[in-house]
Structure formats: structure tokens, C-alpha cells
Specification:
elongated, single chain, 60% helix
Length: 396
């Protein structure tokens, strides 16, 4: 119960509902751990080994950095080898076979390597600390409480002359596996520094699985020394879990409502005039809504050079230019569109990687407020020059 609840108390919970692959990676890692555990404890394990291979391969197919999940399994297998002095060839083959998606993705890996030079998220050595700060800041209270309970349990034991406590058997190779997961971010930053050139905290978010397992192990030891303290710790986590789930549920509902309101507003604005959306992520979301509702005319203006100059990265720009080949995205060249359209409407919400409005101001284009949107503002963009008059757009 504790291991299940803990990821909800961390930054990882966000990826349970955001449309990125990290939640899927965590799910496949959890299944892989179960398959591995079954394969280490039972003789009839062919299905478990097959499940281990497929789950790890599926995680890797979701995100390249999932290859680092092999690290904790390798550490755990080293621990098993040292203790049993038996070479588990079938297990090693199952782990090695899970990397087969990389062979299929070699062309994509070569293509994506060109993004590394100007990638938006550069690795820093300080991330070895800040990663855990980002992951655990929402669970600080629960961790502090459990630490106090653990200290109290040790004090109770020290004050008992003949403690009668049950033995808590935790296999050492499972402890090593959990520690390996905890250390994945450290390995990820090293790899990012010397190989990929790209890292952000969510790339190693599945480290939370190792922390959850170690936390559950710790609480089992506390409970063995004092059933009351163990129960108190579990209930405390349950209360924290309930509060955060309710809070995140409200946040999710609020985000969905704001997105729906924004789309309805921008849909009306673009009914007669195509609407340029400055924020790439907002454009991506609104394009998805326009596709499923068959309404709204949105476009994004891309310019790799200007994006690099204003934001320091060209990752998002180049990504949208490629994605429009496989997704219903309307992306046009900024310079060509600006030259051929003396008047157009622009929506800017101040979102990340938005640079178009600033460049239009620098060019001396006539800009006036067209409408206040739910989460931003629509501007009427006119020609260059102070004497160009107002942009011929409908009244607000």
C-alpha cells in the first residue's frame, strides 16, 4: 500500500495524466520488476522472463532514456551472482534481448542526434541534487514524518531488554535493485554530459519506483518493531495521498476547463480569420482540439534562426516542422508569411518559447489589442511604420 501511494506524493504524479511517455515508462518498469522478482523466486519462469524482456522493451520503445533501467537490474543480478555463485544465463539473455528496439530505432537515433547541439535542456552536474529536490519536494512532510517514526521505533527497541519482534526478510538483491533505481538520475546525468547532451528531470522520473520500494521496506521494519508506529506511518501516508490526489484532481479539472475555454474563444476568433498562435505548446494543444472538433483555423510560424536567437534553442521549432508531416499541424515559414500578410491576428499567452510578438515589435509592425482571451491576448498585427494606419480586422 505504501509503495503504491508514494509516487502520488511526488512530482511523478503529474505524468499520470499528461500526454507524455513517462507514465508509460514507469508502468512498464513496474511490470518488469514484478516479472524479474517472480523469475528469481520460482523455477517455472519462462513466462516471467518473456514478460521481463517485453516490458523493458516496451519501456525503451516509449523513451530512449529508459535504456538506463537496465542498470538496476544489472546491479541486482551482480548481487545474486555473488551470493549464489550461479551464472543465470537465461536471465542475462532476457535482459539483453530487451534492447532490441534500439536496432529498429537506429535511423531515428541518428536523426535526433542533430538536435543535441541546441537542445533546450542541457545537463548540469548540480542536477544530481536538484533532481531529487524536484521529485520529492511535495512529499517532504511524509518523508519527515516517517523518519521521526523510524527514530522513535529505534528508541523503543533500545529501551526494551528482550524485544520480541518478527524477522523482516528482505532479499538483498531486491534492496540492490531499489537502490539502483534511486541512482538512475546520477547515471542519466553522466550519460547526458558525455553522450546525449540533453537532460531534464522527467527523463529519469522512474527513479521514484526505487524510493517507493525502499520506503515500503523501511516501514515494514518500523512495523516489526512497533505495530502502532507502522500503522501510524501507513495512515499518515494515506492522508497525504488523499490530500494530494484531491488537489491534483482539482488542478487537472481546472486545466481542462481553462483549455476548453481558451479553445472556444480562439475558435470564434479564427472563424473568419486564420489565427497565428505564438506559443508552440499552446498551438499543439489547440491544433489537437481543432482536429477532434473540426473547428478552428490555427497556424504556427516557424523560423529556426529566430527561435534560436530569442529562446536559445531550436528544438521546438524543428520538432513542429517535422511533426506537421505526420500530424494535423499547420506550420508555415515565418518570414514568408510575414512578408505576404501585412495584416493578421496573433494569439500570445506568454508561454515558453514564444518569440513572434517580440520580433514583430522589433520589426516595427503596427500592433494593437484585438481581444483579451481567457489565458492571453489576441493582437491585430498591421504593416510596418507608424503611418500605416490600423489593421483592417473586425471590431472586437
Amino acid at each position: 500500500l505504501v509503495a503504491f501511494m508514494f509516487p502520488f506524493l511526488t512530482y511523478a504524479f503529474y505524468f499520470a495524466y499528461e500526454a507524455r511517455p513517462y507514465g508509460l515508462v514507469m508502468g512498464f518498469c513496474g511490470l518488469a520488476i514484478l516479472c524479474w522478482q517472480h523469475a528469481t523466486e520460482h523455477s517455472g519462469r519462462n513466462l516471467s522472463l518473456l514478460g521481463l524482456t517485453l516490458c523493458l522493451a516496451a519501456a525503451l520503445a516509449c523513451h530512449y532514456y529508459a535504456i538506463l533501467v537496465l542498470f538496476p537490474f544489472a546491479l541486482a543480478e551482480c548481487a545474486r551472482l555473488l551470493r549464489s555463485h550461479r551464472f543465470d544465463l537465461a536471465m542475462y539473455c532476457a535482459l539483453a534481448a530487451s534492447g532490441f528496439p534500439l536496432l529498429l530505432f537506429l535511423p531515428l537515433l541518428r536523426a535526433s542526434s542533430h538536435y543535441a547541439g541546441k537542445f533546450w535542456a542541457k545537463p548540469q552536474w548540480t542536477m544530481m541534487i536538484s533532481f531529487y529536490e524536484d521529485l520529492l519536494y511535495t512529499s517532504a512532510f511524509a518523508l519527515l514524518l516517517l523518519l521521526l517514526l523510524a527514530g522513535f521505533a529505534v528508541w523503543l527497541r533500545s529501551g526494551t531488554r528482550h524485544p520480541a519482534e518478527p524477522h523482516v526478510a528482505i532479499p538483498i538483491h531486491e534492496m540492490i535493485l531499489a537502490l539502483g533505481f534511486v541512482l538512475i538520475p546520477v547515471l542519466a546525468i553522466v550519460v547526458a554530459k558525455f553522450v546525449t547532451g540533453a537532460f531534464t528531470s522527467r527523463y529519469a522520473i522512474y527513479a521514484v519506483l526505487g524510493i517507493a520500494i525502499l520506503l515500503a521496506f523501511s516501514l515494514s521494519v518500523i512495523g516489526a518493531r512497533s505495530a502502532l508506529l507502522g500503522f501510524t506511518g501507513a495512515m499518515a501516508l494515506l492522508v497525504c495521498w488523499s490530500v494530494i490526489v484531491v488537489r491534483e484532481g482539482k488542478t487537472f479539472a481546472g486545466n481542462s476547463e481553462n483549455e476548453a475555454r481558451t479553445f472556444q474563444f480562439l475558435q470564434k476568433v479564427s472563424a473568419h480569420h486564420p489565427l497565428v498562435i505564438a506559443g508552440p505548446h499552446v498551438f499543439f494543444q489547440m491544433s489537437y482540439q481543432a482536429d477532434i472538433h473540426h473547428a478552428g483555423r490555427f497556424l504556427f510560424l516557424a523560423d529556426v534562426g529566430r527561435a534560436l536567437r530569442y529562446t536559445g534553442t531550436d528544438t521546438v521549432e524543428r520538432g513542429l516542422l517535422v511533426l506537421q508531416q505526420v500530424a494535423p499541424l499547420h506550420v508555415e515559414d515565418y518570414r514568408a508569411y510575414s512578408a505576404s500578410h501585412s495584416n493578421f491576428l496573433l494569439y500570445d499567452s506568454g508561454a515558453a518559447f514564444s518569440w513572434i510578438l517580440g520580433d514583430l515589435i522589433a520589426e516595427g509592425r503596427l500592433i494593437s489589442i484585438y481581444a483579451d482571451a481567457p489565458q492571453g491576448r489576441v493582437y491585430a498585427i498591421g504593416p510596418r511604420g507608424a503611418d500605416a494606419g490600423t489593421a483592417p480586422v473586425p471590431a472586437n
